Amino acid sequence: MEFIRSKSVSSWARTTLPASAVRTRTGLIFLVGISVLVLTTLGATYWINVLIKQDTQKIILLEHLQTQLLATPPQILPLEQGLHILLDGGELITDTGEKLELLPEGDPQLVETLQKGLSLLADARDPLPDHALELKTNLELTFDRLLQLFEIHRANNLGMARGMYAALFLSITTFLLIGLWFTEEFIAKPLEELVQITDRIAGGDLDTPIELRESDEFKELATGFEAMRLELRE
């Protein structure tokens, strides 16, 4: 009779052990964590890619303005309009016919250089004969400097995007490894111990105390098993 009761205890334990529930809950926690990490990184990289596209179009616009600057005589108004778009933002028609809304420039060094270019263009509207050549040289140097700064800015954003993808890969890998270790140490091992305990009780061993060594996650369940063992032994 006692053996039959032990068998029924073993069957009850196997059906009520919260293995699937705990694993599902833990899996959901890690899934949510990884999802938040992935979405955050993808959102950041998307914004960086937008900035890279903006920098590319600004470089194309600046190269076009440089060509106009080299014309004889240079057209001051289109140059001013172009620099104002680069500085304050505005709608730009790309070479492919796409409308692109350029964002206002936020880099302090670029803002300073753009303002310097606009100041030089204002002076170039009616230059003094003795300063015309010097003014055009300064404008060419300023435009060269702007082009260099925009290219550096784009390269930095490209490096940042690559770094974000690398950080995402490393973070997910680390997160998964920690999750696997946590699941093994605090869920899988205690569950295995509980299954061994039920097998032991089903085999008629009612004298060995029930204790979980690895984790307190299932302490309440182990306490219930211990109370049941004592009751069966009596």
Summarize it.
The chain contains 6 helices and 2 strands. The chain has helices at residues 2-16, 19-69, 76-88, 108-124, 132-202, 219-233; strands spanning 90-93, 99-102. The protein has a two-stranded antiparallel ribbon.
Could you characterize what this model shows?
The protein is mainly alpha-helical and 234 residues long. It has a domain at 18-179. Helices cover 78% and strands 3% of the residues. It has helices spanning 2-16, 19-69, 76-88, 108-124, 132-202, 219-233, and strands at residues 90-93, 99-102. The relative contact order is 0.13. Residues 1-7 and 12-20 have low confidence and may be disordered.
Strands of the widest sheet, in order across it, are: 1-2
Average pLDDT works out at: 78
- What share of the residues lie within helices? over 70%
Number of strands: 2
Assess the beta-strand content as a share of residues.
under 5%
Q: Please tell me how large the radius of gyration is.
A: 35 Å
Shape: rod-shaped
The string of secondary-structure elements, in order, is: HHHEEHHH
| Biggest β-sheet strands, sense, barrel | 2 strands, antiparallel
Number of continuous helical runs: 6
The stretches of 5 or more residues where confidence is low (pLDDT under 50) are: 1-7, 12-20
What structural class do helix, strand and pairing data support? mainly alpha
Taking the alpha carbons of the first and last residues, their distance comes to: 13 Å
